[in-house]
Amino acid sequence: MIHLTKKVLRLKVVRYFFAAATATLVDVWVYFIAFNYIYDKQNINFFGIYTFAAPTASLILSYTCGLITNFLITKFLVFTDSDLKTWHQFLRFVLVALGVLALNYGVMTFLIKEFEWYPTIARAVSAVSIGALSFVVHKTFSFRVSNTDEVSEENDVLKSF
User: Fold this and answer.
1) Beta bridge partners of 45
2) 36-80 per-position pLDDT tens digit
């Protein structure tokens, strides 16, 4: 059993989803705290210029916390062989994350408005639904390796089924 566990943990995709799950837990926890206690389910008036709905303001805060958590775990646990400078990795990671944020926002808003889901549940479902896409983009763009002699672990995973 220990041998199997070690073998599974060597797969980047498993470590990636561990990082994503950890970051998602941070994200959803911060979202819950922000929505219910920091913003107290009230809209936020931003200097009289714009009013953010409580779910949106909570999303901005929680997504930022989740993003930083995800980047750090992904960089140091998953894509350790990337030859890009950390600053470039972070900028690319943020670019991808902004795209993922837009998708998350769209899915979350749809679930809240169309199905009248509770915002925290809608947030969790939207985050999980976009995970596979973000793995591929981060592997090929954010944490790219220019000198690729390694065997694709995704192909190894597929062959094992």
Assistant:
1) 51
2) 999 989 888 888 898 889 999 998 999 899 999 999 999 999 998
Q: Classify 57 as helix, strand or coil.
A: helix
> 34 CB contacts (<8 Å, ≥6 apart)?
57, 58, 61, 62
Q: Which domain holds residue 31?
A: 2-160
Helices (H), 74-118: 86-115
b/e per residue 65-87 (b: at least 16 CB within 10 A): bbbbbbbebbbeebbeebebeee
* Number of CB atoms found within 10 A of residue 12's CB: 21
Contacts (Cβ under 8 Å, ≥6 apart) of 71? 89, 90, 93
Q: pTM for the whole thing?
A: 0.68
> Considering its fold, how many domains does the chain have in total?
1
Q: CA-CA distance, 35 to 24, in Å (whole number)?
A: 16
Report the relative pairing of strands 44-46 and 50-52 from DSSP bridges: antiparallel
